Amino acid sequence: AALLTSTRKRGTATYAQTLQNIPETQVTTLDNGLRVASEESSQPTCTVGLWIEAGSRYEDAKTNGAGFFMEHMAFKGTKKRPGSAFEKEVESLGAHLNGYTSREQTAFYIKALSKDMPKAVELLSDLVQNCALEDSQIEKERSIILQELKEMDSSLTDVTFDYLHATAYQGTALAHTVEGTTENIKRLTRADLASYIDTHFKAPRMVLAAAGGISHRELVDAAKQHFTGAPFTYKGDSMPALPRCRFTGSEIRARDDALPLAHIALAVEGPGWADPDNVVLNVANAIIGRYDRTFGGGKNQSSRLAALAVEHNLCHSFEPFNTSYSDTGLFGFHFVSDPLSVDDMMFCAQREWMRLCTSATESEVTRAKNWLRNAMVAQLDGTTRVCENIGSHLLHYGRCIPLEEWDARISAVDARMVRDVCSKYIYDKCPAIAAVGPIEQLLDYNRIRSAMYWVRF
């Protein structure tokens, strides 16, 4: 009994100590505007990455897909390391190189031994300023990307969310897909890709982040050595402005009765990254919970919507989301259901939204906050996730917010805050809807809109 008590006390203390003992994020801004940030630890490995304020939101209708194309080309050799020489050098370090492109940011990162950090910085610098863009490689990657686009069309979840952005932000840059259109991929040229790099891959839009067994001073020295000079500096011109995007309550329906399941996404406009309401909305999403038929627990799950889904066989899965951008966001839920369950699932999900606006309780808020804390601490697993947090935070918030501060923000949320903030963003708002598959049972938009409020007598 004494041993168990000791173990419990140690576990309780460990959570508080973990928040307090996380290494401080050190940030240095170079003369050219490049931000260099790191968290030092005793790990034998490190992750070094470059986070760039560039993505499909910065593209127009003709260049949409250039950033995704560039991501593919980045790994196909540089002027200093042509062909497969770049890949071989990465492999000789036993390192792992990866990257991704989203609507507002592009990232390239390397996980390697801590002693190889300077070499990783050099490789990242070479990758973004000396990409070879050989014509033969461009044509080869063009074929690969076109094949990827066909495969992406088979992922109905991805298709649904692309449709959701297209209808919610119609006529603006956020309506673009990250991957671009088939027509654009077929006609993008070497000059288009070179122009994209020259416009966006500049020091003031970049964060060089690192986490693991590295020295911040050494990281800054490596950055000064490899991230200076003309390619990373604006030559008198101003930085490209962030294109404005406006949310529109509307819908896209792509009915196909040959498909077995319906995919439905419904969202209202949410806040941007830096808005403090995001913490409250994340608590609200944790109250709604998530469900998949492969989960255990059945109707005894703490999520009311999950319990209803199990008891009445409403859906195969559902998941809430809070997707934030610089100045706007999408707050909503996505579910997959049988054709004859669409109406019932939509009714129950919208009713749960209304309950959050009017009747959220302290007990479920407490449970949701504990779930968020668990998810927050899970971010500490591995240097790659820590490095990504550093880079993304500096782009989104202008600083790296420590977990102790996040914990304080979560702790401050109570049921009244959840009701007030949910009412602000959900109650009597026009939603954006995207639906794909056998969706005959999805009610008219006006009927769905009328369920965004309760008439009580």
From TrEMBL:
All residue ranges annotated as the Peptidase M16 N-terminal domain in the record: 35-181
UniProt cross-references to Pfam families, sorted A to Z: Peptidase_M16, Peptidase_M16_C
InterPro entries xrefs: Metalloenz_LuxS/M16, MPP/UQCRC_Complex, Pept_M16_N, Peptidase_M16_C
UniProt key word Membrane: yes
Transit peptide among keywords: yes
Peptidase M16 C-terminal domain sequence ranges: 188-370
Compartments, record wording: Mitochondrion inner membrane
GO cellular component, as recorded: mitochondrial inner membrane; protein-containing complex
Domain of life of the organism encoding this protein: Eukaryota
GO molecular function annotations of the record: metal ion binding
Main location: mitochondrion
Transmembrane stretches, start-end: none
Membrane topology per record: Peripheral membrane protein
Entry keywords, A to Z: Acetylation, Electron transport, Membrane, Mitochondrion, Mitochondrion inner membrane, Phosphoprotein, Respiratory chain, Transit peptide, Transport
Family under the similarity heading: Belongs to the peptidase M16 family. UQCRC1/QCR1 subfamily.
Subunit note: Component of the ubiquinol-cytochrome c oxidoreductase (cytochrome b-c1 complex, complex III, CIII), a multisubunit enzyme composed of 11 subunits. The complex is composed of 3 respiratory subunits cytochrome b, cytochrome c1 and Rieske protein UQCRFS1, 2 core protein subunits UQCRC1/QCR1 and UQCRC2/QCR2, and 6 low-molecular weight protein subunits UQCRH/QCR6, UQCRB/QCR7, UQCRQ/QCR8, UQCR10/QCR9, UQCR11/QCR10 and subunit 9, the cleavage product of Rieske protein UQCRFS1.
Descriptive protein name: Cytochrome b-c1 complex subunit 1, mitochondrial
